[in-house]
Every structure is written in structure tokens, then in C-alpha cells.
Amino acid sequence: MIKKFIGALICLSLLFSASVTAFGESSYTFKKIENEYCVLTGKVTKISAGRIKLTKISDELWSDNIGYKNKKVDDITLDTTNFEDKEFCDGDVIRAYFESCSLDYSREIDNYAFKLRGYEDHVQQISVNEKANFLQQIGVLNGDEFGNLYLERNITRAEFTTLMVKIYNRYDYMHMSEYPSDSEVLFPFKDVPEDHWARKYIEYAYSNGIINGKDKNTFAPDKNITIRDCIVVLLNANAEEGYQRQHLLDTAKELGGYPDGYIKIAKENELIIDELPEKIASRGDIVTILYNVYYTKANFEYITAGKPVIYLYPQKETNVNVEMYFNGDFTFTYPEYNHGWTVTAKPDGTLASDITEYPYLFWEGKVMNYMPKFDEGFLVSRKETVSFLEEKLEILGLNEKERADFITYWVPQLIKNNFNIIKFDTKEYASKVSLNIEPQPDSVIRVFMVYKVADETENIKKQELDRVERKGFVAVEWGGAIGE
Question: Residues 283, 149: contact at Cβ < 8 Å?
């Protein structure tokens, strides 16, 4: 699964074989994927804290053009300081996304550390035929009497429905001649007679609310189906209970509705990668998607990150670029986030963009696949809320102004309840939301609070907080969310 993977680059991994671009007449060259970002896959050797070496493991995964002038190299050094919570181990194989345009070309490549911007664990590619063989072995996919699978052919609605029902093991007795249906739902499709080969599968899927017809009386079993509609059906099938289906509907609506919200959920759960949603699905397309479905339980969970704000305090006036990456969508940013924020930051924290000044950078968004666990925290009464936050936020490194901003935003919401369980879930939040700042600050302080309503008798393991110190160029982010 992707870990700490840069959201803005997730679709760019498809361009691994894109054209090679040279940065100057006698500069370094790499496989180019987007602007200053490059991608290579190799084996990790740990050098020190914040440094790893990436070594070529095959010609197919390594650019022929990496090197300096006429010198080709089989390894490069990567700066991993943005991923301090990840333990890179000797022998790991990763696909690394890194920055190259800021390279000082006067230095030898052997002594240069490229800034790691994102990575994913590398999994050996499995062919469509191998996936099809697997689906045959578990009884999902069948060929004709000669064993032909015809993966290149477009799939029909009846064929897809049959495979979908099988992959979810919802109808273990499909091989039986009798279909013991106890459904009270009247089967409406006149074009799927009782002796149709896929009738039992279609009837099952319809009676369980997984599929619909082309209209109220027509299913069109021999018509083709798009990848988009396959994904919607598969996600509905994945949501086994009624409340899950409603949650899916709500999440898809938050992420853009039909079909965009469903496609985002499918991509974030890796059910699809580079498939084009509007494309008519081939049998081979569905084999790949069903293979992913078999190994993935789709997660529809998300949390609304409330008012995360970012302060910047350089030691001298500095042009700063700030980028955020997470699975999900921004719902509002100020100033506008356009592939990042670029501002002039002053030592007093004032941020200037064009002719406008800001006290901080602001964003809110839906962060997918993040639901906090209240395994520890603090039980806080309404009257103790202000003093509690003043004490804990000071320990966590927020200065007087930042504490005041945090308290004036969150306390009016917290004191609506007599008691809350409050947890500073920063580590889990940071694993879901990456914050990249250039030039890199000396101190990055992130505080993310989650809370839920409680009663005075509730027990909670007390959370231990480490005191945070500020030094040099300081960047601070705070935010919060309501947990379930």
C-alpha cells in the first residue's frame, strides 16, 4: 500500500516511461515525470539519519540517462528528513519521487543528496494473465470450453454482474440448479428471462440493492459497461450493510458526487490506478479491478480537518514555498492554494503574497481513511477547557498568539458539551497529511487535536505529552477535528 505518498504525484507515476529531459548542456538527467520531479525505483541502503542510498536493481526501473556528463551511475543519495517517522531499512525496494531542478551542477552527483518528496513500496508487477489465472483458481472467472478467457473483449453487463457477485462470495451456492431466493423484491427486468444464464446472479445483485437496470424494466444484459459504472457497483457491493451504503453515498457526495466522488474513493483505495473511467470496460480491465478488490477492503472513512493554520517565522525575510499532500480534497483555502503556497515570510510571522498580507495560511479539507482512535487522551470538563488548553498547548510548543488563536476558535465548540475527551493525535494526522516547506525550517511544530463528547464517568488512559522547543526558522501548524 502507498505510504506517505504525495497526493499531487499519485497519477504521475503512470508517466514513468515518459520522455527524458536534460537540465542544461552538461547537467544531470533523469526520467522526467512532471516539472522538477523525477522517479526511480531501487533498493535502499541506510546511510545515516535522514540519508539513504537508492541502488539500481534493474534496467527497466532505472533511467539510462541518470548521471553527470558522460558518467552513468547506478545509485544516488536521497535526503529523507521529511519522512522522519518512516524507518527505511536496508534491502527495502521503493519507488522514489524526488526533486532535481534545484541541483547545484558544480558538485559531483556522488556527493549530492536529492530531496525525497514521496515514495511508495515497490511491488513486483503482476501481468493481467497472471491475475486472470488467480481468479480462475478461486472460482470467479471461467473460460469457454477451450479455456479461452478473451481478456481483450469488452465485457457485458451480465458478465460483469456475475463476476462481481462471485468476487464478494455473496452467493456460495451459485453452482446449484435451484436458487432458494427468499427475497421479497419483485424482479422487474423483462429482458432477463428465468432461463437466462446470468439470471440468478442478476436477481441476487438487484434484490440486494447492488445494481440497477438501464430503466425500471430493462437490464440490457448484453450491453457493454463503462469502468466508471463498474466501480460504482463494486463500491456498493463492498458496503454490505445499509449504514455502510449510506456512508458511501455521503462520502462520495462530499468528494464531488456521482461519478467523481466514487472514482476518487476507488483511486484512494487503489481499486483503480490508471484506468480511464469513461472507457468501455474490457474483460482484462475487470480482471485487474477484481484482483484489486479481492485484496482490498475499501474504506469510505474521512475526517474533516477543521481550520488547520500554518505560521512561518524565518530568521530573516525569506521566500517560502508550502505544499500539502493528503488523500482527499480541500474544501477551502486562504490564500488560494494553487499547487502550493508561495509567500514572502517575515520574522514576525507576517506572510505576503502579491500585495496582500496574511497572519497565516489557512485550509480545511476532507482527509480520507483517517478516523482517530481514542485509546488515550484527557477527560476535560467545560469549565476546565480554557486552562487545560493553555497548559497543554504551551507544552506542545505554541506561543502566546498561536495559543490564543487556537483557543478562540476551538473553545466555543468544545464548551457546547459538559465533558469532552481530548486527544492530541498529531502523529497519526501527520501520517495522513504531509507538510513540505522549502527552505526547510529548523523547527516544525504540528498540533492536531481531536475530541468527542463524553460523560464525567468515562475512563481514558492519560496521554503523555513531550515538551517541544522552538529554534531557528520555525514553522507551526495547528488544527483539529471532531471524532466519532
Answer: yes
